[in-house]
Structure formats: structure tokens, C-alpha cells
Amino acid sequence: MNGGPEEVRCMLMRGGTSKGAYFLAADLPAQPAVRDDLLLRIMGSPDPRQIDGLGGAHPLTSKVAVVSASAGPEADVDYLFLQVGVERGEVSDRQNCGNLLVGVGPFAVERGLVAPTDGETSVRIRMLNTGDLATATFPTPGGRVDYTGSAEISGVPGTAAPVVIEFPPGGSPLLPTGNVLDTVAGTPVTCVDNGMPTVLIAASALKITGYEAPEHMEKDPALADRLREIRLAAGPLMGLGEVEGTTVPKLSLLAPPAHGGAVMTRTFIPVRCHTSIGVLSAASVAAGLRIEGGIGQDVAELPAAGERLRIEHPTGFLDIEAGVDTGGSDPLARRTAVVRTARKIFDGTVFARPASTLDPRSPR
């Protein structure tokens, strides 16, 4: 036994195109190591099927949001994202998740952290992983969260209530290396961070079209080797240090749009190819496309400044507003906003797999 609770109040939610377990911070152990051990047992890791837990055998469904009342005046709630490994017993807080972010506002209202208003409610969120802020606005008729509505997002069947996620202007340079173009592991790239450290690469530079199905890309060992080489070399250049055991930076391969959007993408997290694209990854891609001279200049078909960018991905598209101020010495992000949806799947008590002598940080 590790001393942590074995029964925990939990809400399973779909946020954007991901799914994860949402917890109040007060319901989890305060010590990170004890908390992470408990979450591994709750999610059923390490196990490629995650058969003995909540995880869905994919990084997009092995995620955790930990929410608490905010400690500062700039936000209503604090949100810690934890990526739980599937085949490896690892829990990482090295990145944000814009998909689970979509469910944080509704969850905060459901748990009584934020008082709703009749009509719609806005919740100011601090993302503890990076310190960035966001505001989520969603319908609360009669003071209750309403998950039903007519908003559609690619990669999710049916419709749901819209959740508008707005990110304030960033104060940090969009280009963490200081360059619009870098050559990393022999490949021209643009390294950008508009909420998610992302390396933009022309798919053609890796001798692929960029329209391949995700499962096809994942079975290409030569592509996997090149992506790993680029990611490991880009990490230190972007100020992320050694990234061998992390999921950042993301790698987004760009190709000309196929369905009337601005660009086609294939995003890796870091080995599995995303079946769509995360909100923060899309924000970084969109901002990167707006920087003159970047990798996207010869690939994307951009609308006029101020218009929404449609980012195409394997299962559809994501529309996002992304403005960039290029008047200074370094480009800065202006307003970034996106419409997504979330849905409560269940609310109750989750029972963790019993602790055992198995080292949870080693693959089976």
C-alpha cells in the first residue's frame, strides 16, 4: 500500500477530441509521487490495453485534469494537466492540454468552485503547467451546465453545447529559438510556441505527402526515426532541455490544404499521430502560419488577416482565430480563440487497481 486513497471521486469527460478523468485537487494525494502512483492504477497503466482502468489504450484517452480554486486573483480556478503513459508507467506534467481545458469550466461549476449565472458562465482558468491563462464561456441556463447544443467539431460524433475558449495576448515571443527558420537535424523547421511548443515541418521535407492516414504514418519506421531525431534536437533549442522522456515539443507536419482550409496537418504526440489536432497545437500552428518567412509560407493558403484559420487534420478541421503582432523585434501573439465542445460522461467514484510489487514505471 502507498498510503493514498483507493476510492476517489471522479468525473469522466470528453473535452474537445480527447477524453480524460477530472479530479478536484483536494481529492488526490498532495505528494506528486503518491498522486502519480494512484493515477497510474486508476488509468490501468502500464498496459497497452489499460484493461484494468479508465484509460482507453491511447494517449488521447489517458489524460487527467486536476482542478482547484485558484490561488491568485487573475483566475477563478487552477488546472493541472497530467499525461498518463499507456505502455509505460509515467505521468508527465511537462505540457498543457487544450482539449481537456475545454471541460475545466463546466467541471468547476459542477463541483461548486465557480457560481454559475443564468444564461452563460465564464470561468477564468490558470494552466499550472505553464502559467498561461484562458477563459471558457459556456451555457448555464437556470444556473446549470447544459451540455446539449448544435455545435459540431470534427472528430466527435453528434453535436453539443459550444464552449468558447479565449486566450489572452501572450507576452512571450512566439519563436522560442529567436529565428523564423531553423535547420534541425538537417531539416528546415519553424519552432513556435503559442501555448504548446510545436515544431512545424513541411511534410514534403520528410518525403511524404502529409495526407497519409495516421495509422500508416505510425507504421513507417524511417519516418519515426526522422521525427525522433528532429524532436530530440529541437527540444534544447526551444529551451525545453532534454526531451527524450517527454511529450513536448509536438511535431506538426504541414501540407497544402485539401478541403478549402488553410493547411493540412499531421501532429505527433510524440510517436502516435493525432487523429485530429489539439487546441493548443492548433493555436501554435495558426500563429506560426501568420509569421512571414516561416515554413508554412510556401504550403498554406491563408485567409485575410483577422479571419479565422481552418486547420485541416485527419478527421476534419478546426477553426481558430489567431492574430500575430509583427511590429516589434519579435513576433507576439494577439487574441487567440476557438469554439469547442465538452460532455460529461459519468460522475461518481473510481476504484484504483490495488497496489502491488509491480514497478509501475516499467513496461510489462
TrEMBL record:
Show the GO MF annotations.
Answer: isomerase activity
What keywords sit in the KW lines? Isomerase
Q: Quick one: signal sequence residues?
A: none
| A Pfam family the protein falls into | PrpF
Q: Which residues form a coiled coil?
A: none
Q: What family does the entry list?
A: Belongs to the PrpF family.
The protein in question is named FldA protein
Taxonomic source organism:
Streptomyces flaveus
